[in-house]
Write a structure and sequence with these properties.
The complex is a heterodimer of chains A (about 325) and B (about 260). With about 325 residues, chain A is α/β, with parallel strands linked by helices. Helices cover about 30% and strands about 30% of the residues of chain A. Chain A has 2 domains: about 170 residues, 3-Layer(aba) Sandwich (Rossmann fold); about 120 residues, 3-Layer(aba) Sandwich (Rossmann fold), CATH 3.40.50. In chain A, the strands form 4 sheets. Chain A has a 7-stranded parallel beta sheet, with helices on both faces. In chain A, strands 15-14-16-17-18 form a 5-stranded parallel beta sheet. In chain A, strand 4, helix 2 and strand 5 form a beta-alpha-beta unit. The longest helix of chain A has 17 residues. In chain B, the strands form 3 sheets. Chain B has a 9-stranded mixed beta sheet, sandwiched between helices. A two-stranded antiparallel sheet of chain B has the order 2-5. In chain B, strands 3-4 form a two-stranded antiparallel sheet. Chain B is α/β, with parallel strands linked by helices. The longest helix of chain B has 17 residues. Chain B starts with a strand and ends in a 5-residue tail after the last helix. In chain B, about 30% of the residues lie in helices and about 30% in strands. In chain B, strand 3 and strand 4 form a beta hairpin. The chains are: A alpha/beta (about 325), B alpha/beta (about 260). Chains A and B meet through helix 3, helix 4, strand 7, strand 9 and strand 10 of A and helix 3, helix 4, strand 9, strand 10 and strand 11 of B. Bound molecules: flavin-adenine dinucleotide (2 copies). The site of one flavin-adenine dinucleotide has 28 residues of chain A, from helix 6, helix 7, strand 17 and helix 9.
Chain lengths: ~325, ~260
Amino acid sequence: MSNNVLIVAEGKAEGLRKVSFELVNAAQQLARDLGGAVEGAVVGNQVGAWAEQLAKTGVAKVYVVDNAGLENFAPESYASALAEIIRAAAPAIVLFGASGWGKEVSARTAAKLGWGLATDCTDAKIENGALVLTRPIYAGKAIAHVRAKSFPVMVSVRPNIVPPVEAESPAAPIEQIAVTLKEPRARVVEKVENAKSKVDLGEASIVVSGGRGVKGPEGFAPVEELADALGGAVGASRAAVDAGWIDYTHQIGQTGKTVAPKLYIAAGISGAIQHLAGMSSSKVIVAVNKDPDAPIFKIADYGIVGDLFQVLPALTQEIKKLG
Amino acid sequence: MPYNIVVLLKRVPDTESKITIRDNAVVTEGLNFVLDPYGEYGLEKALQLVEQNGGKVTAVLFGPEEAKETIRKALAVGADEAIHIVDPALEGGDAGTTAQVLAAALKKIPFDMVWAGKQAVDEDNAQVPIRVAELLDLPHVNSIIEFEIGADGKSARCVREVDGERDVMVTILPAILTAQQGLGEVRYPSLKGIMGAKKKPITDWNAAALGIDPSSVGKQGARVEIIGLEPPPARPPGKIIPGDAATAAKELARLLREEAKVI
Ligand SMILES: Cc1cc2nc3c(=O)[nH]c(=O)nc-3n(C[C@H](O)[C@H](O)[C@H](O)COP(=O)(O)OP(=O)(O)OC[C@H]3O[C@@H](n4cnc5c(N)ncnc54)[C@H](O)[C@@H]3O)c2cc1C
Ligand SMILES: Cc1cc2nc3c(=O)[nH]c(=O)nc-3n(C[C@H](O)[C@H](O)[C@H](O)COP(=O)(O)OP(=O)(O)OC[C@H]3O[C@@H](n4cnc5c(N)ncnc54)[C@H](O)[C@@H]3O)c2cc1C
C-alpha cells in the first residue's frame, strides 16, 4: 500500500462532473499529510476525454479503464473495473463523490475489496496518522466524527462542500488498465429523459424550492423563472411532490435529495425537520413565507415575510437587472 | 409463479424525533422507533408481489431485543414471518459488519429476491444492501421507483432515479433490490392485522445460529468507528428584510451579491 489518495472521477456527456474537481482539492491536503500523491481514476466506455481533463487537474497520474462493457451502467462491471484500478494503484484512501452513482459504486467496490467506507462526509482530515471524517447523521440532527481504524479505506464526499480545483496543471501521465469483465447480471438497458431537470439538483450551486405555498403545478412557474435567472435548479418540499405538482425527483429532504448549494431559496415551505434534513448544510438560506412564525425563518440567513407570488417575480427582475 | 421474498428492515427513530446527545451517544429513552421508511417501501412492494403471485414475505431485522415491537409492525401489515437477529455480541459495528451479519442470515433462507431500503434514515450509509449483494455474489439494483417481474418470471425490469436522471435496469433474479420513495404508498395495519401479528412467528437468531465468529463483526470487526457525536452547529440568527415585495426583493438581491457574495 502506498500513501497515495486516489479519487474516482465521474462524468457526463459534457465532461467531468464538478464533484470530480472538488475531490482533487479534498485529496490534496490528505495526500500532503500522508506524504503521498493524488492520483485519479476514470472508468467507462470511450472516456479518453474525461481522462485527459482529469490529467490536467494537478493529479500525479490517471488510471483509466476504457471498456465497451462499461457503455451502460452495470454495478458489477463498474465495481470490477474500479477494483482493478485500486489493486494497481494501491492507495491508502479512495475518495468518491457522494452522488447517487458514487454512493452505489463505492459500496459495491468496498464490499468487493473488503474495505471500510464512510458515506457522504462533509470533512476529512488526518489526525495522529488516522483518517477522521465528519458526517451528518439523523438527518443532520447530529454530527458524527468517524475514524477509520486502519488504511486502506474509502470515503464518499458530499458535493458542493469543498471548492473545486480550478487552475489547469500540466498533463499527468495516463495509464490504461486492461480488464476482462464478466457479463453483468444487472444492467441499464435504457435512459429515460427527464425534461424538467435542466440542472442536476445534487450538483447545483443554487437551488430554488417551492412548497405547499405555491398552491398548484402552475405555482411552480415563478419558482422556475427565478431558478432560471440564477442559473439554478428547482427543488420542492414533499407536500408539493405528494400533491402531484412536481415530480418527486425534485424533492429535497430526508426522503428526497440532500443538497448543499451555496444559495438555497425556500418559497412557501414551512421548514419541517424532514425538509431541513436535505438542505440545512447549504451555505446561505433564504426563506420567503407569508407566515412570520414559520420554522424555516429559524435557519434562514435572510427572510422575507410576504406572498411568494409577489416576492419571487420581483426578485427575478432584480436578479436580471444585476445581470 | 410464487415468490419467496425477504425484506431487510431496520429499526430507526421516527423522523420527527428530537435527537439528544449525551456522552457521545444518542439518548434512546423516549424515542419512538419505527421501521425505516425506505425499507417500508420495499416491504409494500414485497406484499403486493406476493398478493399477485403467491409466495411468502419474510422480514429480517438485525437489532436489539427492544426491536421486537418494531418487527410486529411488519407482521401486522402482512409479512408472513420474521427473523430477528439479536445478539449483543454482534452489535456496535459498521455498515460492512452489518452486511456480513445480514448476508450470513440470507444464506440460511431460500429467496427469489430481497428488498431493502435505499438507505436507513438514521445513519444514512446507503451501503448495507449493496454490500450484501456483493458478499452473496448476487446482482443488485439500487433506488428503484418502478418494478415489474419479467415474462420469464426469472428477471425483473426496474426504473430507477439517480442523480436527476431516470434509467431502466434489467436484472436476473435472485437479486438484492433497494426501494426509493415513489415505489408506492405504504399501507397501514388494520386492527385484524395487528391481532393476527401476535400469532405470527418471530424466530431469534444469534451469532451461533448464524455461524458467525463475533470477533469478525461488531465493534471488533468494524473498519470505521464513531468516535464522537455532537449537535449540529447553530446557524447565526438571520435577518428579516422589511418592506413591500419590491423593496424587500431589491434589498435581498443586494445582500446576496454584496454581503453573502453568492450571486
Ligand atoms: C418519514 C417522513 C419523511 C419525510 N420526508 C420529507 C422530505 O424528504 N422532504 C420534505 O420536504 N418533507 C418531508 N416530509 C414531510 C414534512 O414533514 C412536511 O410535511 C413537509 O415538508 C411540508 O411541506 P411544506 O413546507 O411545503 O408544506 P407546509 O408545511 O404546509 O407549509 C407551507 C408553507 O407555505 C406558506 N405559504 C402558503 N402560501 C404562501 C404564499 N402565497 N407565499 C408565501 N408562503 C406561503 C405557509 O405559511 C407555510 O409555512 C416527511 C415526513 C415524514 C413523516
Ligand atoms: C451501538 C452502536 C454503535 C455503532 N457504532 C458505529 C461505528 O462505530 N461506526 C459506524 O460506521 N457505524 C456504527 N453504528 C451504525 C450501524 O452499524 C449502522 O447501522 C450500519 O453502519 C449500517 O448503516 P445504515 O444503518 O446507515 O444502513 P444503510 O446502508 O443506510 O441501510 C440501507 C438498508 O439496509 C437495510 N438494513 C440496514 N441495517 C439493517 C439492519 N440492522 N437490519 C435489517 N436491515 C438493515 C435496510 O433495508 C435499510 O433500509 C453503530 C450502531 C450502534 C447501534
